Model the fold of this input.
Amino acid sequence: MNLSKLGQLAVDVARKQGASYADFRFEEIRNENIEVSDGKPGQIDRNSSAGFCVRVLADGAWGFAANAVIGESEVRQAAQTAVAIAKTSARINRKKVHLADVPTIKDKYSTPFDKDPFKIPLTEKIEYLLSLDAMMRKNESLNNSGAFMSFTRTNKLFISSLGSEIEQTLLQSGAGASCGVIRGHRDRTERSYPSSSGQYKTIGYELVDELKFEENLPRIADEAVMLSLAKECPSGEFDIVLSSDLLSLQIHETIGHPLELDRVFGSERNFSGTSFAIPVQLGELKYGSDLINVVADTSYRGGLATWGYDDEGVKARPFKLIENGILVNYLSNRESAYRIGKLPTGAANADGWSNPPIVRITNVLLEPGESSFDDLISGIDDGIYFDTVESWSIGDDRSTFQLGSEVGWEIKGGKLGEMIKRPVYSGNTVYFWNSCDAVGDKSQWIIWGTPNCGKGQPAQTAQTAQGCSPSRFRRVRVGVEHG
Amino acid sequence: MVDKSRIIETLHSAMKDAPGDQVELVYDGEILNITHIAESEIQQNITRADASIVARVVLDGKIGVASTNKLDVDSVRACIADAADISKIAEPDESFTSLPNSPAAPEVNGFRHSTAEATPSDRANAVWMINKAAAMHNMTTAGAYRTIINQVAVTNSLGTEQYFEGTKAEFSLTVSAEDGRSGYAIAFDRDIANINPGELAEISIDKAVRSENPVDIDSGQYTVILEPAALGQLLLFLAFIGFGSGTFVQHRSFMAGSIGEQITSDLITVRDDIYNPRMQGMPFDYEGVIKKKVDLIVDGIAKGVVSDSGDARKMGTESTGHAHIATKSFTPYPKHVVMEPGDKSVKDMIGSIPRGIYITHFWYVNYLNPMRTMVTGLTRDGTFFIEEGKVTKPIVNMRMNQSILEALTNCRMLSNERRLYPQFSVVMLVPYAKIDNFQLDREGA
Done:
């Protein structure tokens, strides 16, 4: 029996057992990871995983069963188990789950790319990574260096009791490099490029050319050495400019996560927290200054969360989340969207075949402003420029945060000054976004892939993206009071 | 579950005539059942079964790794061939000499039929019970109740053959009121019969009830009582940052250059001990090496780190049996952390504090400076003021910006009571701690 027929069988069995809705998802995931460190090839591995899941709604409650073994009897059993589990849950639950309507879809989607990374010889990839490592190692003061590439291809088949059947082939590519200096006992600094987790996109091997390692790694190596001698972060209230990659994390943690609508309703109360941005504030909450316009767009070419359809069969398209600083929508799936009477924003995403889809950050994009980098810096008399994510810790309801970067520079009299080691800033989310008085222009705008966003019980890892330009924020608390 | 004999036979059959000088095959299987609770409803109820087979092939000192989740012999052979292809183009690993040839590991009974046979209905009954208790206080529940069956087999062409099957049951619970106050409790055991949902509800409801109208207090250094979950969060970061050989050999661990030195109060003794009767985990690692009980800190003195065979060679020691599965790029870290208890009751510890803070749990702990063990994070789910030896009132959650080693140096008392605290892949057996000069800052001020 082919996969399509197995999927249909799962849906049919579930419906016969009493499910009001059922979907079947098959995924086959192929992954290749290559690392080099200190001038030598490190871990090289190729992994594959395949399996299916059946998700059902029965008596108003969810049931889910997944298995790596794919056959007719396993599919039948999974469908029956999922329905039985759902009915057990329904015995306890007071509220029934309802789903926002979505159209029936029959379609295919593939990630557009230029160079298939799985067709590039492994030797070529290793040699290239070694050349990057050597490039950094020309600076003899370094104590460690390394570079990596990672590629994932996922084939998916989604079949639902609504009659949808969607085939997708998604391709993700990632690469990055880093180096460090040990100055003394328990004194180590690190610089990385293009960010501390590299860069990830849904494109092909062309990502490696796009990153322009050769132009940047000598600078990163020099900065790592300078950083080991840099001064400590001052404490106080300063005007600050955040680099694009650090602002990407700020968006991820204080816009993306708080606007996941399942979290808003309490789904993560026991694990990764709640959200201050409750639905009664929709259309009212002045989340940020008038310059803050944020869109969620799973159709944006190259974003790490770019696909044709989400894992509930909702078509990719852009939705505004924040318009001129006002909260106007959430990241949602069919269940949570129903609860606020809106269309789902296509944010249902599962970590592989063995997990149910939950609401995830997708491609969350802060629209560019009009300021050049010089404009951002020249508007500050005494401040700090933060570059490259290093540390983050967010309040339970996402209303507060503390983030830190690998490196900073003083801003004195509108110009970049001395380097600062590991600067940290903190604040209140709404106050912070309202303190933004300049957003960088389109020429500085980058979409950053986050390959390892954690959420859910059982824990799921998602790939998200945030797009932004460097931006300026006024009167922000910098430094920690101790240590 | 997959029959042990089927797993072993498949690995042996696939290994026959395999390419390469040495071959290692690891089967890592898991059946997970989990009931996820939010808004006092069962939000998700999941069962799933998966297993990966990882092949490591050694050819002329060069190593290739590949994995599949298909257990048939042909798929495993294809996986070995893929690993062999990778090994052909890898560079020789100068520190590698051979795969381990390990004797059979001692029997550890980590399997409980009660856990393996628990049903969705059993978990639903527990949810009904905790919901009823929370509703009496107008509170809602959120949590996760899970059971896991693990099967791991390690074989290699030198004759190593290990097999383990074990179970885990874990219930974490947060009870919260509409005004945001909350309480938290967690339990872990190999045997689900030892998980008491009623007790978890009682503990978490009590914390939430006592958290009404919290007061703000000033940033500063306080004497604190850390519950096992809070102290466990700090130990977890020590485990990740520095108790493993990977960061140690790269001089990226606080333990590097510190062995034999006093790094904490002499009250602190921490070991990785799979053989502790409360742990009962897998007695070998993913290379098949028998796990050793490892002294990490004894009486405050840094003693050693856990290792795999590759790092052990670099250190000139023997592997402690802490290798990860070869597809993971993680370096070794302890997964069964046991902290020795003290001799004080929790009541006496609180009674000794004229002015301090009682902390249930930390949230979103992350590094600030790993080499200096500086971390940040927020208190959560029950933070209270201690005045004149008594817990007097709830306080607003505060941010910790603290060196863990400095905190453990300022540890003044440990409780005679310990609790199991699971977090990610690590299980810790941890007492309550009294710590002086612990830095807490007002958040978002």
